[in-house]
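Subject: Interface between my chains keeps coming out wrong

I've been trying for a while to get a sensible model of this assembly. When I model each chain on its own everything looks fine, but I need the whole thing in one frame so I can look at the contacts. Pasting all components below, labels as-is. Any help appreciated, I'm running out of ideas.
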Amino acid sequence: MRAYLARAVGRELRAGKALFLLSVAGVALGVGAVLSIQILNGSALGAFAGTVRAVSGDADLSVLGWTGALDEALFPEVLAVRGVAAARPLWRADAVVEGRPGASLELVGADLLGAARGPSALPPAALEGALGTPGWVAVTPAWAEEMGWREGDRIDVSLGSRRARLVVGARVDFQAAAPLASRRLALMDIGQAQGLLGTRGRIHQIDVRAAPGVAPGALAERLSAALGERARVATPEQRTVEAGGLLSAFRLNLTALSLVSVLVGGFLVYASVRASLARRREELGMLRAVGATRAQVLGLVLGEAALLGILGTAAGVPLGWLAAQANVGAVSGTVRNLYLLEGIDRVALTPALVALGAATGLAGALAGALWPALDAARADPRALLASIAVEEGAGARAGRLLAAGLAALAAGLAVYALAGERLAAAGFAPAVGILVAVPLATPALLRGMGRAGLPHRLGIAYGLRSLGGRLSASAPAAGALAVAVAMLAGVTVMVGSFRDTVERWLDATLRADVYVTTPSWRRARSEATLAPEVLATLRAYPGARSVDVLRQHTGYTADGRRVQVSGVDAAVPGADGRVALVAGDAGEAMRALRERGAVLVSEPLARKAGLAPGGALALRGREGPVRFPVAGVYRDYGAEGGAVLMDLEAYARAFGPGAPSNAALTLAPGDDPERAVAALRAALPGAALQIRSNRTLRGEVLAIFEQTFAVTRLLEAMGLVIAAAGVTLSLLVLARDRRAELALYRALGASRGQLFRVFLGRGLAVGGAGLVLGLAGGGALAVVLVRAVNPAFFGWTLGISVPLRALALEALAILAAAAAASLYPALAASRTPAQELSRDAL
Amino acid sequence: MRSSALALALAAALAAGAAAAAGPEGRAWAPADPAHRWSFPRDHHAHREYRNEWWYLTGTLEDAAAPGRRLGYQVTFFRVGLVRDPPALDSAWATGGAVMAHLAITDPGAGTHRFAEVLWRDVPMLGGFGAEGDPVLAWAVAPPGTAGRWALTLGADGAFAVSARDDAQGIALELVARPERPVVLQGPNGYSRKAAAPGHASLYYSFTRMATSGAVTLDGRARAVRGTSWMDREMGSSQLAPAQVGWDWFALRLADGRDLMLYALRRADGTVDFRRATLLTPDGAVRWLEADAWRAEPLGRWRSAATGAEYPSGWTVTVPSAGIRLTVRPELDAAENVSSRVPGLAYWEGPVRLTGPDGRAAGEGYVELTGYGARARPPI
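Reply #2:
Try treating it as a single job with all components included. I did that and got this:
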């Protein structure tokens, strides 16, 4: 019997080659989608952890500032703490390489003289250059090769408006110790780094190694006690966990999206197994009749599914790897620019990830096959042998499935209603409910379409309406398509709403005419300052009616929340127009900022930290926590973790003096912003600046927005490809299973063209059903994403706006895909010869 | 001569070595000047035109509470120049050199030798060298894990005060050393040649006898001590010749009141490349001894388990023209200093006892041995 089973699997595969290949493709795409996202997620964290390792080496602890930087006077204090075996001061900032768009150096200024060992150890001959050659820098071999730099080459860089000429003095392979570390890492002596590009007295990190026998935890406590409120102490693991926390919402959303691909792939497997079983009912009945046990039949079917899963995984793993490679740029850009973490240089496919891919593929395939397999195994042999159509059972089931779907939806909503307030993840419950309900409603819809009555001619319309009688093959395909469409439509509406909201927000708050910042600002933030002479030139510009400036750093609330803290000049005319408050009067709020030293908190922060006007917020200042009254909640779509806005004076009191990083000029009415941009550029030839008009800046903000959603779009596309494969698959099943019926049509005089059109109609019916249900589900999903998931994970309130044009284009594309997917099955069906007519079919 | 090579070992470990005597863009380091105009106390202070210099105190002490309980100590401050004219930078970290300091306490009775060290950038935050008029000659922040600073200061009364501690090692000392004899210039006008070829030399002077008192902490327990110290002060830019790998150095205080300083620079094969000596009599007369005027013959060997280096241990020292014939024996064999901050830097430095031909005690002193062992970094 066992030998028979093995042979049966082989025969079945040969017989349904196209069918089988399509299911394999479905599994492969699902595995690929999940794997690519997990690869990217893992690599994003790996890049951070690797860079920490490359920079800090075997340091047990890092002393870090609460306000983005650290007073270097703390260094001798750290050294004096009992149990410290070594301490390394580090100056860090990302400088932009001039004339090479997108190129930067992640500069690490270390004490090269005091560190004969550790990650900053240099070839002995290099130290004199590191101290004596102005601008000496060591770069990684990988980056040097990519940039075409050789030793002795000069590199012009900028940090803030300041320019410096660096000289490639040596190559240091940071990636040797940590392969995922950023290849942009570059090492300088701390004196040169700070002197050429930084600010006297300001460093960023002190790495500490504990003496033998001293527990890092105990040392951390001693250091914290010695430094008090002036610094924080973290282990490398804590820093990586913190980075993971920053990315968690981003990662979770991508993961959730990728799982939908598996769901769609699972439907495909279900459809294919179901079809194969429908065709083999008699065979299975015979087997049972001659003594095969239920377990053996179950094993046979699941064995086939496992093989399918294995093959799908084998194809899906390279696919996932390629997809990850293709998207590393977009994800890396988001991680670098939005979360200010390390970009991803290399994606790593670890054995654990391969195992995850295999588990996904196998589980997806087995789950898809389980129901039909159990069904077949459970059935009485006589029932299997009797040639009553499966369809009757399927038809009766449609109503029950619809009910089950509605129950799932209700359950999802109930979970959200009960736990939505407390548990962010509860926002996904209604989404899952929708994604379950959509396919379960498909059979009912198809049956409903069938009830409209059959037209009297064989053609597209006949195909469209006759599908209701072929539920077992067509419903899963339509269901899979509906899920994919729901996801696509839901995300399209969500992204559209988001974009629309951001655009309106930009309109409301980007009021100045000319914006001045520096090329390095996007990454270096508080380190990328405008030199005093630049500010003076801006202020002296004759056309400027007012000049507003901004200081910003990544800070912490007293309870440890990482927030973006900004200081602006609340007294600048028109300052109230700069923010859009969720509620209340902006003029009033600005006055509170100016006169009471109050702050505005962004909507995500207000939501996550439970803040409201009239309350208070404690932020970590230079010397300890500083309490600020909260004057209002403002809309912000730039900082997921939350943002705080205050007047520059209050900012300086809490966080110390410093130069602003951004400036905005309001011109006299009627002045041409583009002309002012050109004039300012000409007036400041020596400084590294980005001077942009309102219009240009707006475009750039939206471009970054699009970049963030690039991966989302890829996942949508993968889901759709799987679903299109499903359409082909289901029609192939129909063409094969119904050979006898088709033969009868042919015998009765139906032309090939008529049969072709019938199948095209069936394809369109599957596509249409998927589209209708998908759009309905997608609409509901969009509401869930915008109203529940977004506020819970990101804290943003979005207005819903439906991008009709985009949706219409997608709908057309889906119908076209469905039609295209029908071509081959329709052709195959139309070729059915009349001789296939059998007595059974009559 | 002393530890010129020590500092150069550091330089070699950290930088290109003596070959690159000039910074990439700056002036070259000044060679030792045979016509140097000596002036004290000015010359006790740093001379930044030279690549390297050091203040080197060694001595033997007696526990005031336990007569007969002897301790040896060594405290050294090195200034290591790497770039003579570093770029002008608005940064408190900007520097062209390093301050390194070594502390060792030898307890022959307990058989222990403890070593501590610091190595910092030569910046006001971490250490440095006082200018003329500043009582502080050299100082450095204590090693990581220990509060406070190490310092060598010069009092108005001409006494030197030295303090250093390392809590992780449980050692500290706080001593005042008062010169009992005037400065001795080691070589004509203090110009101390290190090789037959010209240019390899340093400026070198010593206080051979300094009455010393204060406190020494061992294993966390402080004890009052008194004894005698020897201070060497040396500066220069290019001391060792290319073929030289290390040296043997002796600072001996004879019981008859004479003081003897010997040094021999060795080649890689162990043969002596260049050697000189200075003999000081109690009346203050100085004799500079040429190579043929004295001998130091090793009596045995001691192998370090820590570095695998094999050092000579025990010598017969003869100066026939002065009627000197001494046996020099280490008070403790295991007196090796192994740096953990400068890879490959290890040397032997410890107290020795002198006996005469009749077997009677004939004095005490300190010996330094560098460049031994395969793993020892070549000085240049």
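Reply #3:
Confirming on my end. Chain A touches chain B at residues 72-73, 75-76, 79-87, 89, 111, 113-114, 116-117, 124-125, 127-129, 131-134, 189-192, 194-196, 198, 200-201, 211 (CB under 8 Å).
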